[in-house]
């Protein structure tokens, strides 16, 4: 049965986060008083996701290398496609989750509400690790970014042929400026381990107040060619991801693709939640 | 006066280190007190928490929920006091703020053969005799959940969790055998070990004769056959010789 391989230290899996860092990411997302730049919100969500992955892999007193992580940013000045890590991990393509945990670029202080044991909530200051900084520059070289992700996938599969398949989470806010990305996306989805094909999930975030389309199983309702192209390069979601989707109030239809169009802030958070929680972590 | 024969076994997960085993067993045969505790990997310092609970149980005298709650509070405070939060890296601070968790089964056998048990989570007790079988707190393989209620070290953060402590009582007869098991092996025992006659006979023989290496081999076989989940295994076998 595909997507049933146990994720363990001897058989780890891999996440590749593909982040659009083009100029339009400077536009706002959200509504009312909580307008944020898309780039700021995306980096917060990615940092939170990495934080959660590290915590999930922290067993007793150590971080166990159940996952390796690649962060690929595209757009930006200089090299248009490259490692999205900041700080000590800057420039690295693929990093063990234990090293991700050990080497955030910096720790910021944030507050969160926790139960006080007497029926109330109190604010608690927590350290919030930062690995990726917001970037919003230049064009959208999506094809080149997908090709770089394919390179990471190929190297990974050569060394881990029996792994739970790598998961590529791609977040963009616009159309590719270096050609049709469909073929590059399809090449990623065609790659496979003995446990199944690599999973490519795409999330399109929007500043517009446009109708959101989440995890469709049919392209008929999609509004334009761009949306249909991204649908075509989005993997059908394995059943293993459904319980997380259900937990956040999304019922995936049969054959649902890992694709969200016109995502708002909440949909983006859910996208990361759903995409980073395969159930069979040891 | 009750006479007992006790065998204990602890096997770590395949592809893990012995030091990573988070199950603990507690034995105080003189006091008739026994425990199997399964520390939750996701907690912080759960291995130590499991040992604290096991040792706390076998040294205690009472067997009621109120006494257990007080003991958990005391032991949890002791565990917490070991950690200097400031010196921990950020990811361990987060884990430490959530505390440790463990599944617990404790048995108290009295001199005249009556017994009490407390359980929380999916560690189990089985009482077997020539014509009777009791399973506590879970009796079917399908009852083993992915997320059972566990004993927290930070009871203040989880004030309602101890509502899920369960108590059972009974009488034991000469020839009875108690098995205390952590979840994976308990689930396997209900699904396979008890029902398959030859397998059950072999299992009991290996345990009774304390043939540790062969028992570990059986565990490995059953894991390879995917009938036993790859998890730490703790077993206490307590045979009642006379009452």
Structure overview:
The complex is a heterodimer of chains A (282) and B (243). Chain A is α/β, with parallel strands linked by helices and 282 residues long. Chain A is built from 7 helices and 16 strands. Chain A has helices at 38-57, 97-102, 142-159, 182-190, 225-232, 242-247, 265-275; strands spanning 13-21, 28-29, 36-37, 58-59, 62-63, 67-75, 81-83, 95-96, 106-115, 121-130, 167-172, 192-193, 196-197, 199-205, 213-214, 259-263. In chain A, the strands form 5 sheets. In chain A, strands 1, 6, 7, 8, 11, 14, 15 and 16 form an 8-stranded mixed beta sheet that branches. Chain A has a two-stranded antiparallel sheet with strand order 2-3. A two-stranded antiparallel ribbon of chain A has the order 4-5. The radius of gyration of chain A is 18 Å and the shape is globular. In chain A, 44% of the residues are buried. With 243 residues, chain B is of the alpha+beta class. Chain B has a single domain, classed as PPM-type phosphatase domain (Phosphatase 2c, domain 1, 4-Layer Sandwich), CATH 3.60.40.10. In chain B, 31% of the residues lie in helices and 29% in strands. Chain B has helices at 46-59, 65-81, 90-98, 183-193, 197-208, 212-224, and strands at residues 3-11, 23-28, 33-39, 101-109, 114-120, 124-128, 133-136, 151-152, 166-171, 177-181, 233-242. The longest helix of chain B has 17 residues, at 65-81. Chain B is globular and about 55 Å long. Chain A binds chain B through residues 6, 8-10, 54-55, 58-61, 63, 101-102, 104, 107, 114-115, 117, 124, 126-127, 129, 282, and chain B through 15, 20, 22, 39, 41-47, 89-95, 97, 156-157, 159, 230.
Question: How do you describe this structure in short?
Answer:
The complex is a heterodimer of chains A (282) and B (243). Chain A has 282 residues and is α/β, with parallel strands linked by helices.
List the helices and strands and how they pair.
The complex is a heterodimer of chains A (282) and B (243).
Chain A: E1 13-21, E2 28-29, E3 36-37, H1 38-57, E4 58-59, E5 62-63, E6 67-75, E7 81-83, E8 95-96, H2 97-102, E9 106-115, E10 121-130, H3 142-159, E11 167-172, H4 182-190, E12 192-193, E13 196-197, E14 199-205, E15 213-214, H5 225-232, H6 242-247, E16 259-263, H7 265-275
Parallel strand pairs in A: 1-6, 1-11, 11-14, 14-16
Antiparallel strand pairs in A: 2-3, 4-5, 6-7, 6-8, 9-10, 12-13, 15-16
Helix pairs in contact in A: 1-7, 3-4
Chain B: E1 3-11, E2 23-28, E3 33-39, H1 46-59, H2 65-81, H3 90-98, E4 101-109, E5 114-120, E6 124-128, E7 133-136, E8 151-152, E9 166-171, E10 177-181, H4 183-193, H5 197-208, H6 212-224, E11 233-242
Antiparallel strand pairs in B: 1-11, 2-3, 3-4, 4-5, 4-8, 5-9, 6-7, 6-10, 10-11
Helix pairs in contact in B: 1-2
């Amino acid at each position: 049965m595909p997507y049933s391989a146990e994720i363990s230290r001897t058989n780890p899996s891999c996440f590749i986060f593909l982040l659009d860092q083009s100029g339009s990411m400077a536009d706002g997302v959200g509504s009312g008083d909580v307008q944020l730049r898309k780039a700021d919100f995306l980096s917060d969500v990615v940092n939170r996701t990495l934080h959660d992955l590290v915590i999930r892999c922290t067993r007793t007193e150590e971080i166990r290398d159940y996952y390796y992580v690649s962060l690929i940013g595209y757009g930006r000045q200089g090299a248009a496609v490259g490692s999205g890590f900041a700080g000590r991990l800057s420039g690295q393509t693929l990093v063990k989750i234990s090293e991700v945990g050990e080497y955030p670029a910096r720790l910021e202080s944030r507050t969160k509400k926790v139960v006080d044991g007497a029926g109330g909530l109190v604010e608690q200051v927590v350290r919030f690790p930062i690995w990726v900084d917001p970037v919003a520059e230049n064009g959208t070289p999506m094809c080149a970014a997908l090709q770089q992700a394919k390179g990471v996938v190929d190297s990974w599969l050569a060394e881990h042929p029996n792994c739970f398949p790598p998961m590529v989470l791609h977040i963009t806010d616009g159309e590719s400026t270096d050609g049709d990305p469909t073929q590059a996306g399809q090449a990623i989805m065609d790659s496979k381990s003995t446990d199944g094909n690599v999973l490519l999930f795409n999330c399109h975030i929007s500043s517009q107040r446009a109708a959101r389309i989440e995890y469709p199983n049919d392209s008929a309702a999609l509004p334009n060619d761009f949306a249909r192209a991204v649908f075509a390069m989005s993997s059908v979601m394995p059943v293993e991801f459904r319980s997380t989707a259900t937990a956040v109030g999304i019922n995936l239809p049969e054959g649902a693709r890992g694709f969200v169009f016109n995502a708002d802030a909440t949909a983006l958070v859910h996208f990361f939640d759903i995409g980073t929680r395969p159930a069979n972590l040891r | 006066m009750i006479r007992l024969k006790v065998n204990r076994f602890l096997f770590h997960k395949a592809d893990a280190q012995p030091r990573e085993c988070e199950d603990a067993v507690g034995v105080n045969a003189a006091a008739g007190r026994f425990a199997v505790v399964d520390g939750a990997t996701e907690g912080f310092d759960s291995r130590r928490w499991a040992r604290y609970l096991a040792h706390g149980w076998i040294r205690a005298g009472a067997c009621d929920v109120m006494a257990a709650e007080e003991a958990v509070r005391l032991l949890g405070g002791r565990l917490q006091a070991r950690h200097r939060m400031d010196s921990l890296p950020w990811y361990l601070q987060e884990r430490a703020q959530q505390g440790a968790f463990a599944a617990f089964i404790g048995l108290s056998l009295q001199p005249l053969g009556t017994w009490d048990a407390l359980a929380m989570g999916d560690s189990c007790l089985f009482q077997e005799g020539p014509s009777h079988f009791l399973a506590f707190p879970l009796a079917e393989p399908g009852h083993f959940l992915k997320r059972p209620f566990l004993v927290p070290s930070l009871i203040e953060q989880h004030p309602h969790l101890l509502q899920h402590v369960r108590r059972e009582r009974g009488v034991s007869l000469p020839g009875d055998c108690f098995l205390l098991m952590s979840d994976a092996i308990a689930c396997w025992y209900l699904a396979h070990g008890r029902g398959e006659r030859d397998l059950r006979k072999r299992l009991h023989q290996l345990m009774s004769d304390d043939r540790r290496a062969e028992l570990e081999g059986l565990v490995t076989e059953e894991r390879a056959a995917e009938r036993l989940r790859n998890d730490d295994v703790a077993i206490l076998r307590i045979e009642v010789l006379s009452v």
